[in-house]
Amino acid sequence: MHAPSVGEGLQAEAVLLRLRGTHPDWQIIYTHTSSSADALAQRQPADRAGYLPWDRPRDLEPVLDALTPRAVVFAKLDLWPELATGAARRGARIGLVGATVSPVSSRLRWPARALLRAGYAAVTRAGAIADGDAARLARLGVPDARIQVTGDPRFDSALARARTIRDDDPLRILGTGAPTLIAGSTWPADEALLLSAFLVIRRLRPTVRLILAPHEPTPDHLASLDRAAAAVGLPAPVRLSLTDRPAPLLVIDSTGMLARLYAAGTMAYVGGGLGSAGLHSVLEPAACGLPVLFGPNWQNSREAGLLLGARAAMTIGPHPESMAAAWGQWITNEEDRKAAGGRALRVVEEGQGGAARNAELVEGLMQSSELSAQSSVLSPQGSAPSTDTEH
Fold this sequence. Notes:
CATH superfamily of the largest domain: Glycogen Phosphorylase B
Distance between the termini: 23 Å
Order of helices and strands: HEHEHEHEHEHEHEHEHEEHEHEHEHHH
Largest sheet: 7 strands, parallel
CATH architecture of the largest domain: 3-Layer(aba) Sandwich
Mean pLDDT: 92
Number of strands: 13
Strand content: 5-15%
Strand order of the largest sheet: 9-10-8-7-11-12-13
Helix content: 40-55%
């Protein structure tokens, strides 16, 4: 199972937890490419976890020789063409789980589409999260007959994690006693907007709080946040590592706690929608029953569209006035805010089931691979197995 970063890793985790429970005898290898996924990789229900080598035959062939996988499964979309085609030539089944293709994805354009086509053509079975994604997978080269709509395992993962947050979790105290905005996975553009809007909001409601969880809480970045807050006249940010109490402006200076942190908030802002980085996951705050704000570049996120359609989220423009207006609306109208948070939670609840359906897809890959291996042993020609699921 390959999942490049944290978002894809949460999809994979929901599927692997089911597979590990029903198939304890399987050997599961989990790979990733982003350093931000290190902690998640180590908790995966897998026998081994680590980084995937470069997608070059000379780097991948020793791995395939050592593992001789029956199936190679990619989470979401990050299919590596050399790995997919190389494994398929050796008889492995190739799968995609929780597969999604944004309508604006660069993979759909030349030259990426041509370069990646062989890898997608090698897919034995793809589980798309929705009909539109299934159609775009076919454009990338996955044969129509091998695509089915299985839903998004992230909905299962987000809700399961939210339900494990204890009432006495120490992070919850950070949002007690005052309206608190949790801003998760923020980039500098998000933070500049949030700090300026926070200054406006504090004039109207001095008790309001802001908790910033930067996507990359490096020492240099945290120092820049200190300078940015001072430049607009805000109180000095307090780092979580130095306190266990609420503060007007709190900065999370470590990783791995954002999903729990949302439970402390009254509303959320998710970063990445102001630039080209891509909007980060809105499911974790929604699973905690929070209404969500994000920037205008959200089109790569199907779940953001679902929240907007349910009136559980609002988009803001690139100016502090837009951010302050939306933020202030949910502070002053508590009834509307709570109703929006309830709708956000229902969106997540209605998306359940993807983990089970994608796990069944992987089981089918393993079963067909086993049957194919038996057929090859019995066949006098010993021909290589086809990647077609009807074999």
